[in-house]
Amino acid sequence: MRQLSTIADLRVFTSGAPRPLGLVPTMGALHAGHMALVAAAREECASVVATIFVNPAQFGPAEDLARYPRPLSEDLSMLEAAGVSAAFVPPVEEMFPAGSATTVHVGAPARPLEGEARPGHFDGVATVVAKLLLQVGPERAYFGQKDAQQLAVVRRLVADLDIPVSIVAVPTVREADGLAVSTRNAYLSPEQRAAAPAVYRALAAARDRFRIGAGVPAGAGTQVRAQLEAGCRERLAREPLIDAIDYVAVVDPETMAPWAGPGAAMLAVAVRMGGVRLIDNVLLE
Amino acid sequence: MRQLSTIADLRVFTSGAPRPLGLVPTMGALHAGHMALVAAAREECASVVATIFVNPAQFGPAEDLARYPRPLSEDLSMLEAAGVSAAFVPPVEEMFPAGSATTVHVGAPARPLEGEARPGHFDGVATVVAKLLLQVGPERAYFGQKDAQQLAVVRRLVADLDIPVSIVAVPTVREADGLAVSTRNAYLSPEQRAAAPAVYRALAAARDRFRIGAGVPAGAGTQVRAQLEAGCRERLAREPLIDAIDYVAVVDPETMAPWAGPGAAMLAVAVRMGGVRLIDNVLLE
Question: How far apart (Å, rounded) are the C-alpha atoms in residues A79 and A73?
Answer without folding.
Answer: 10
